[in-house]
Every structure is written in structure tokens, then in C-alpha cells.
Amino acid sequence: RPIPPSRPLSPQRPSFCPAKRLGEQPGTALPAELRGRGVAAGVAVLLQASTGRVLLTRRAGTLSIFPNVWVPPGGHVEPGEELLDVGLRELEEETGLRLEAGTFSWRMLGLWESIYPPVLSRGPPRRHHVVTYLLLLSAEPHERLEARMRPSESEVSAYAWLEPPVLEAIVATEDGAESLGSVPGALPATVGVTELSGGSSSTAQLPTTTFLSAAPAEREDVERVSTGTKFALRLWLESLG
């Protein structure tokens, strides 16, 4: 059963949100073909293993929005779907991981307004979502969960089970913040990830700084953890006390 949220669930957004910037610029309007698209609903799941690690995936470079950005598994809500069902379906479609009833608990973390491109300097918004972040607490260790994973290369190019100190550091690099939060002092130089290519997988080491990169304000995007994911991880840390 879901645990009732401890805070009102109104959608949050970054300070540089394109929708906010458009409202601050008199006479600025979206093209008609973009105005008619409306706002879609999405769900993303933070899957925490019993070992305390959290699963993040790197979106495939061929995807039309947020390519090569690290996020939790997630996707669109289809008509009539319950939020948990969406999260479980997307988790299985993207990673091949199926969670059986009774092996996990869950609750809602918060709502996030996601727009792509994330800044106006890269053009007018083309996609607009309100994403519900769910926390799934698995009773299984990450090693056992990983053994069942069969990621889809059309959506995922890599995945990683990140440890709490790295996750805390990611939260401290909140995009758009005037200063860094409290970054753990002893971070590993690299993070182990699983890369996917040509139907096979291999282990690799990425610099930890890759996960601490901020969203560029002007230039083209970089490999990083998405702003919405940082928001969800902050709520996750707060839930741990």
C-alpha cells in the first residue's frame, strides 16, 4: 500500500524552467503546433535495493528528448493506468526487471514539471510533462535484481546501482542553485556502470564527476543526471531522515 505523502504534492520545477521564462518575456509565444500538444503525464521509479543502492539508467543517444542523460526508469501514462502499474510496466520494458507482488513496498515522492529542451537558449519547448516520482523499496539486494535485468538498448545505453554517498553528492549539485549543498568528502574517483552495445553488456568505470555535472545554461547538453532526478533523490534522502 502507498504511504500517504508528508507534503502537498504540487508540481515543482527548476528556476530556469522554460515555461517560467516564457511568462517573464512579454510578447513571447510558442508556435501554434507546439501550443496544441498540451501536457502529458509520466511516471518514474526510484528503485532502491535492500543493500541501499538505487538504480539509474542512461537514456539511449538516439532518443528524441534528454539523450545520454541519467534518469530512473519511467515513461508515459496510458489512459486508464494506475501510477504504480505505469512504473512497474516501464521498469520491465526498459530494464527487463519484473517485480513480483509482495517483494517490494512503494510510496509517492513528488511531482516534477519536465520540459524539453530544458532551457530556452536551445529553442522553444517541444515536450511538456508532469512526472510523478515513485519510490520502490525492494526486499532483494541489487546483485539479485541485476541478475534478472535484460535492458532494452533502444531506450537504455547504460545503467548503474549507485551508493548513497554518490547519490548525496548528486543531490548537492542541484541545477540552478546559487551554491553547492553538502557534498560527502570521501567520494570514489570512478563509478562502476554496465554499458550496453550491440546486444551485449560490459562493465566500465565512469568518472564520478560525470554524475555531478550541472545542466548547461547555454551550450549543448552533456552526460549528467537530470534535474528532475536530482529533485526526486533529494526527496528520497529526506525520507531517510
From TrEMBL:
Catalytic activity field? a 5'-end (N(7)-methyl 5'-triphosphoguanosine)-ribonucleoside in mRNA + H2O = N(7)-methyl-GDP + a 5'-end phospho-ribonucleoside in mRNA + 2 H(+)
| Molecular function terms, GO-annotated | 5'-(N(7)-methylguanosine 5'-triphospho)-[mRNA] hydrolase activity; metal ion binding; NADH pyrophosphatase activity
Tell me which InterPro entries the record gives: NAD-cap_RNA_hydrolase_NudC, NUDIX_hydrolase-like_dom_sf, NUDIX_hydrolase_dom, Nudt17_dom
Q: Which residues form the Nudix hydrolase domain?
A: 36-184
Keywords of the record, alphabetical order, are:
Hydrolase, Magnesium, Manganese, Metal-binding
The cellular component terms of Gene Ontology attached to this UniProt record, alphabetical and capped at eight, are: cytosol; peroxisome
Matches recorded under Pfam families: NUDIX (PF00293)
Q: Which cofactor does it need?
A: Mn(2+); Mg(2+)
Question: In the record, which residues are listed under signal peptide?
Answer: none
Protein role: Acts as a decapping enzyme capable of hydrolyzing monomethylated capped RNAs (in vitro). Hydrolyzes monomethylated capped RNA after alpha and beta phosphates to form N(7)-methyl-GDP. Shows low activity towards unmethylated capped RNA.
* Family of this protein: Belongs to the Nudix hydrolase family.
- Name of the protein described by the UniProt record: m7GpppN-mRNA hydrolase NUDT17
Task: Please give the organism.
Answer: Eudyptes sclateri (Erect-crested penguin)
Gene that encodes the chain: nudt17
